[in-house]
């Protein structure tokens, strides 16, 4: 998804700023537990980071926010930084003693849309049309672990549609899986997902009103005492740099000032 904005004017200064803002970290490795909806973008950011920190290897674990949080608490996975697509799962990490509240940062947001396969002829006149016979299947994320699914359920509940469309609902564990399923679906299938995950083989047909669900915000924090390591500190700082924020903006995310609740 190509986007042009005034933020791109920062690009000429970004490279110079990086040279003094982030002194080279020593050799090391980073493991990032990343909400699936931001995985591709974080990998782009990681590649840019490594142009200034060649000795730092980065491993990405991309799953739904809930599955990551449960895996980190249960010891099934280990990571240095956790990135969640919702506040409740970050709170879960705090309550589990894996993250300290003061270390949590919020840098990006997103919006929710209804999309269809690129070549589908389905027309969705309005949100209420989801309950009509025109729509046969509605794909959403698993509300129990995938934040984009929970936001979709909230929107359907707050508008009184949830019970009407429930028989049509099919869930997917994470947003990449849903986007793939939707791209290959029939003309009577739609999906509710984040705008940033509407790829070239999908088409947005409706933008979900923001007041129908909780604000969509991403939260990140070092796990345990990982924040004391130089490479972790450098990467989190880099995420707040103009170069990284440009990447997120171009991918369709919304930028939020650090500390936004």
Order of helices and strands: HEHEHEHEEEHHEHEEEHHE
Structural class: alpha/beta
CATH top level label of the largest domain: Alpha Beta
Spatial shape: globular
Helix tally equals 9
Q: Looking across the biggest beta sheet, what order are the strands in? A: 2-1-3-10-4-11
Reported for the largest beta sheet, the result is: 6 strands, mixed
The CATH superfamily of the largest domain is known as Periplasmic binding protein-like II
Domain count: the total is 2
The oligomeric state of the chains shown is single chain
Instruction: Give the beta-strand count.
Output: 11
Helix content: 25-40%
What is the residue-mean pLDDT, rounded to a whole number? Answer: 89
The radius of gyration is 19 Å
Bin the strand percentage.
15-25%
- Known CATH architecture of the largest domain: 3-Layer(aba) Sandwich
| Head-to-tail CA distance between termini | 28 Å
Low-confidence stretches: 1-26
């Amino acid at each position: 998804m190509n986007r042009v904005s005034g933020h791109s004017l920062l690009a000429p200064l970004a490279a110079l700023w990086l040279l003094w803002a982030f002194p080279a970290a020593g050799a090391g490795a980073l493991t990032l537990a990343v909400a699936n909806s931001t995985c591709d973008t974080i990998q782009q950011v990681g590649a840019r980071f490594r142009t200034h920190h060649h000795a730092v290897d980065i491993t990405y674990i991309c799953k739904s926010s809930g599955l990551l949080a449960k895996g980190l608490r249960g010891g099934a996975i280990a990571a240095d930084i956790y990135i969640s697509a919702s506040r409740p799962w970050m709170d879960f990490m705090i309550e589990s003693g894996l993250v300290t509240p003061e270390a949590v940062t919020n840098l990006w947001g997103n919006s929710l849309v209804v999309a269809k396969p690129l070549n589908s002829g389905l027309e969705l006149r309005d949100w209420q049309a989801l309950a009509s016979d025109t729509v046969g299947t509605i794909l959403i994320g698993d509300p129990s672990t995938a934040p984009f699914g929970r936001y979709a359920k909230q929107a359907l509940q707050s508008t009184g549609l949830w019970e009407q469309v429930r028989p049509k609902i099919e869930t997917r564990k994470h947003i990449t899986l849903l986007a793939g399923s939707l791209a290959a679906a029939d003309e009577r299938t739609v999906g509710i997902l984040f705008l940033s995950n509407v790829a070239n083989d999908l088409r947005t047909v409706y933008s979900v009103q923001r007041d129908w669900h909780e604000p969509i915000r991403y939260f990140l924090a070092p796990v345990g005492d990982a924040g004391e390591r130089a490479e972790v500190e450098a990467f989190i700082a880099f995420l707040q740099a103009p170069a990284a924020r440009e990447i997120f903006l171009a991918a369709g995310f919304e930028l939020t000032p650090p500390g936004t609740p």
